[in-house]
Amino acid sequence: MRPNNIPARAYDLRVFGVSNELLLRTMSLDSYDIALLAAIQQDATTPQHALGAQISLSSAAVNRRLKKLADEGVTRKTVSLVDPERVGYALTIITEVEVENERLDLLDAMKRSFLACPQVQQCYYVAGECDFVVIMVVQNMAQYTALTRTLFFESNNVKRFKTLVSMSNVKVGLEVPLDAVAD
């Protein structure tokens, strides 16, 4: 039976290990917060007075809400997206990595090696046929070959890896869909 303080749509997520505390915190965003998040996901450089005009809030209210969203970890970082090709990174590589042993210390060592590599843009520890999916940008195949030596061949814990080379980056983004989040 679903506890009364957890919305029905959120209760089903507990099956996947999502905690009640996280669900309650997630569900506390109101329509103004959602509108702000949608706007800053498109352009985080929009001035606060312009954001306020878009969603009918004062600049001070926008400032307070943005600070609260950051303080609570809803927003994590403000960055500029650099076009990799314009700075010499012509290839996007997606690599599926299967590990030999899933001991925590060995997995942590692999995670550290991916975190330390500047060409790695994203890295996911996943369930399924492989253990990691690594997305990286490289200048050319010679650079990727050198990275495979460092990241995969020199690791004692990589069983195999499979490389996919992007022919066209159809969609690249990190925007989170917000249509089902508001109370």
Task: Indicate the multimeric state.
Answer: single chain
By CATH, the architecture of the largest domain is named 2-Layer Sandwich
Number of domains: 2
The SS-based structural class is alpha+beta
The largest pleated sheet is described as: 4 strands, antiparallel
Poorly predicted tracts of residues? 1-11
Q: Work out the strand percent.
A: 15-25%
| Lateral strand order in the biggest sheet | 2-3-1-4
List the helices and strands and how they pair.
Layout: H1 8-11, H2 20-26, H3 31-42, H4 48-55, H5 59-71, E1 91-99, H6 104-116, E2 120-125, E3 132-138, H7 141-153, E4 158-165
Antiparallel strand pairs: 1-3, 1-4, 2-3
Helix pairs in contact: 4-5
Features of the shown structure:
38% helix, four-stranded antiparallel sheet, Alpha-Beta Plaits
